[in-house]
Amino acid sequence: LTPILSDFDALMAEGRNVRFSSRGNDLRVRFRTATGNGFLYIKGNGRPLSKEDILGALRFSDLLEYLFRTQPLSRNEGRSVSIVIPSENRYIVTRNPEMLDILAFIEKISDLPLPVLIYGETGTGKELIARYIHRKSRRSAKPFVPVNCANIPTSILESELFGFKKGAFTDAYEDRKGWFEVADGGTIFLDEVAEAGPTVQAKLLRFLEDKIITPLGSRESRKVDVRFLAATNKRLEDEVREGRFREDLYYRLKGVLIELPPLRERRDDIPLLAGYFLEKVRTELGIEVTEITRDGLDLLMDYPWPGNVRELENVIKSAAVHAGAGGKISREILRTLIGDTTGTEVRKLKAELEDIEKKRILRVLEEVGWNKSRAARILGLSRQGLILKIKKYGLTSTAVRQ
Description:
By secondary structure, the protein is of the alpha/beta class. About 45% of the residues lie in helices and about 15% in strands.
């Protein structure tokens, strides 16, 4: 933080009632609200926090003051919010206990030389989590190379990943490095890894076992030093059963598993994320929308968000354009974008989703003999998070029930 200490006086002169303290690349912001003190934690990304980071913290303190004032929290909820900065101008904002556990888990595994598999529905922020793992590791100064396997035709994915030699195929007019070599020393992230075909899967397995790649058309293998991260929105165990994914590759990948909760299970984050995206609209689009109305926020809280955080961001952007400068994002505006799905429909969907989760947790617990630590690792939860869900669903072992 040394390069920006001289800016603190100017920032404090803006009249904001905040105080800063720091440790390493992390920043703690303490601010006054109408109902007491609030706290904000910003996790650095391996570089000194800039003046823009501090200004961003000040904007968040304004947002949080508004949220704490308009949405009284229970005594157990606390007033702490964590923000991490995976890459420039991109934030992970949460006060959800499960997400906070995931961020704490990443602190522990960011430097382990193990592949990481990130599971989550579309729009839950899998690439953002991958970027954060990279930023927290000793490889943060080296390349981070994201590749979406679903966006590249199966016929050319192999050459894109592993490179090719001149003459390997019709249009191969010169040697070209693949993404693995480009990422040498850093991290490669394969999104939608379930879409990789059999040949690519075989080469991925070879890399994970020996750190060796072979360019298309070459007889020589090359050793590369790359951290491997992958993500999927499909259950790979189901893909293995259906014969679409190699079982040996699956077991290699799931050495470290992170399972991201869908937004419908992070409802405590919806007001915070909505406010964050509204601030992005002000900054990036220059549309000075004043606020989201109370009934508008109620609609956001009730909506099931099948597209998760990405859908919420797009809805806020569209709603801001409809509201215009000086306007408010109201329920009426939001209804034109997402409909009005409150009441019975949402409760029915929530019950169905909870039933699916309950059955999956029980199945995994029975498979591992109710070893909670093992089950939590398989499910991508913390042990405490799993215990809370066992209590929530009233789960007991078959032996106890008999």
